[in-house]
Please model this.
Amino acid sequence: MNPHPALSILLAAAADSPVADPPTWPVVVLPVLFLVGFVPFWCGVVWLSSRFSGWSRVAAHYRADRKPEGRYASSLGCVGWGRHNALQFHLAEEGAFVQMPLIFSTGYAPLFLPWKDLHSPQPAFSPLYKCVKIAIGHPCRGHLVVPKAFYEQTLRPRLTEP
Model:
């Protein structure tokens, strides 16, 4: 049985032509374009977030001038307003070192918050969990917002009562 004449012509043409390899340039170019484009975009978004959240205003007065020391703890929370991120705490005898994880650190200078400058805890709203908002500084330079459980277990025992 002979196949259809048009199919015979296509099969003969395919047998005579070499099979083309797929192009390799997208494998090299697309990751490079991603890094060149996305990384600066991400850094810009994170930097703007630090400006609008109030972190940079707090950092103007409480920028850490040494490496963090003390017991490490991590919690959701924020300084100022905005999204609640994973904050990294190092709890020292004289205060708390607070910083953002590396992927979110552009524009977020590490902070050192002396215990004596954390005051006036009050309930705060979060749709996900109960929070406590703690004033930073005299006069107040901003607020630290953390989950109530983290405040009760970790921060409250270290705060000085007025």
Summary: The mean pLDDT is 81. The helical segments are 5-16, 25-53, 55-62, 148-155.
